[in-house]
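Predict structure. Chain length: 278.
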Amino acid sequence: MYQKFLVVASKKDVAGMNITTQLSQFRKNPLLSAMNSDGNGFDFYLVDNEIIFTENLDMEKINKYDFVVFASKHRSSSPNRQKALTIHSVGNLRKADFGGETGKISPTSAIFQKQLFENLKMNADNFNLKDYEITLEATHHGPLISKPSVFIEIGPTEEEWKNRKAGFIVAKTINDTILGFEENPYNEIAIALGGPHYCPNFNKIQLKSNVAISHVIAQYNFPFTEEMLLESLNKTDEKIDFAILDWKGLGTTEQRSEIVRILEKNYVQWKKTGDVDK
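Prediction complete.
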């Protein structure tokens, strides 16, 4: 499915440079491009400016690869400023305030994201990274690209961006997932709807169930539309089996009914988070 990966970071991003510096130690031959090697492998692409803006990227270079991993900093407006390592899909389901285009999202892989999330949690536990939350985020911000992609981030402040252990754990996670990536025909594939930006109910499913989640549409993007659904289905590389609904995080009774109507109109099965075996 994917063999040639591109790890993209901004030279202006302290966390991105921390991650890529740590990741460089995992390349057996830094002079040999992944494009010229057998099996799975990755190359680096260090960008002069912010990577959330499509216009800052060399699309000709990006389009040569099968999959793009954006290594980046994470910022939070939350007053508790929780330390976190995060993973999320890319794009804007509504207004494009931070790169990309309004109403458009980039492709992703539910299976790759699941393996990345599992490895991130395992490495954080194995290396005793204390006080960091390991979490999915809802799909948000640019860039808009045609290749499947995912962001993996350290945050939320400069102290965490520079943390060498956090950088190492993210780097090891990227390397482990790329080199060990395998298609899994037994995973059920889902998009996820509802709940907050940081996805406590979906985190449990991604980590403890057989379900692999691609795009997450948080409640703040509602009202949910048919265009959002079709964009999420079309921008998941695998065939979607069903949608997972964070039922209490879907808003009003009217909003729940409209979401179910849109799903069923498009022949998309759905389950509540509590109905997923974990």
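Summary: The mean pLDDT is 96.
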